[in-house]
Amino acid sequence: MKKLSLILTGILTALILIGSAYAKFAKPSEAIQYRKAVMVLIQQHFKEMGAVVKGKSDYDKETFSANADVLKMLATLPWEAFTTSGSDKGKTSMSSSVFKKKAQFLELTENFETATAELAATAQGGDLKAIRGQFGKVAQICGSCHKNFQK
Ligand code: HEC
User: Fold this and answer.
1) Is the CB of residue 12 less than 8 Å from the CB of residue 73?
2) pLDDT tens digits for 52-63?
3) 43 C-alpha to ligand 1 centroid (Å)
């Protein structure tokens, strides 16, 4: 489990560096690729936690916490890529309502960042019941954003 944490920490560090150093997009297609990649990572870590929450995988505090920390970090990364102009066209399922209702979109991204940070904090406490509740809140925000901003 220590090993997994180390690997995840490594990914995290790499993402922080990439996130702060390179997240400026020369073309809309780059923004699209970037945000889809982050969503795929989000999905993977969220799915692993979801299996635990649903009782399909065993609960291991350290592994769950490591996944929650990665999600918290990932949740801060892609929003500039979503609001890059022209990126509602091309190989994307993002709706142009992101531009038309930008304030609403940004509010959801903030809620998501807060909720994933709370999930990471709750995960450190190791109370599975509390974790389940907070996981549910995060899942609701995924759903709400997809419902409003995916075509
Ligand atoms: C604030 C808005 C928002 C939140 C929060 C959000 N998503 Fe997304 N997500 C999107 C949009 C918009 C797209 C479409 C991106 C595109 O096609 O360019 C997307 C795409 C995806 C995709 C498809 C990626 C691909 O390869 O095309 C997956 C999987 C995904 N989201 C999972 C999640 C999960 C799981 C969560 C919650 C843990 C989440 N998303 C939270 C807005 C959001």
Assistant:
1) yes
2) 999 999 999 999
3) 8
